[in-house]
Amino acid sequence: MNTSAGSPEAPTPTRSAEAQITLGMLNAVEENAVLTQRSLARGLGIALGLANAYLKRCVTKGYIKVTQAPANRYAYYLTPKGFAEKSRLTAQYLTNSFDFFRLARNQCDALFAECEAQGWTRIALCGAGELAEIAILCADSHAVQLIGLIAMDGGPGVGKLPLVGDLAALAEIHAVVITDQRTPQRSYDRMVTRLPRERVLAPRLLNISRNPPRLAE
Predict the structure, then answer these.
(1) CA gap 22, 54 in Å, rounded
(2) Statement: residue 9 has pLDDT above 50
(3) Mutual angle of helices 80-96 and 15-31, in 10-degree steps
């Protein structure tokens, strides 16, 4: 994990850029434990030396654990602390991202198109807020019916959707779309205890782990 000596210093990233790089790194490690630092740098669009520095920082902070792999390579794993930090940074990114509306609209459209293809027409949203509002707008363009909004921790309603605190309060539901921007992973984890995992959908921008993550001890 050493940086080549004599390499030019990269410009110091802003705090926002630092958070985005860290989030990208935690996502990449979760998806692929045996990635190389070079592929990590290429995927994040940063210099190799900068990727090395951020990886060291994540290890020091206890977000990532490094283990020796065959052929003098390393394997990287998220720790429970790293998994929690990924969720926190995701919520922060969604609050500050200028691309939020475009991404949310495109990804909600794709989810409702998937529901149509599967014959899932009775849909509930889980989580109030701006993402739920965008999902409601997108649903109008698809052959689906939004049955209600699940807000497990309370909060204001969105549009004219019935607001409930639990999935059981709604009539027959074919699928749930996660629209919780504050604690999306928690909402997803709760919903998959009530519906088959394939019927709990979420925009990719929420960075939800659809399977129990392989965490380092």
Answers:
(1) 7
(2) no
(3) 130
What mean pLDDT do residues 134-142 have?
A: 93
Among 69-73, 107-111, 148-152, 158-162, name the most confident range: 107-111
Q: Is the pTM of this model over 0.70?
A: no
**Gyration radius of the chain's alpha carbons:** 20
Domain enclosing residue 202, as ranges: 100-206
Cα torsion at 111, 116, 119, 121 (round to 10°)? 80
Q: Mean pLDDT over residues 107-122, rounded?
A: 96
Q: Is the pLDDT of residue 109 over 70?
A: yes
Q: Is 120 a domain residue?
A: yes
* Domain final residue, candidates 96, 126, 149: 96
Give me the number of domains the chain comprises: 2
User: Are 143 and 186 part of one and the same domain?
Assistant: yes
Domain assignment present for 75: yes
Together in a domain, 106 and 193: yes
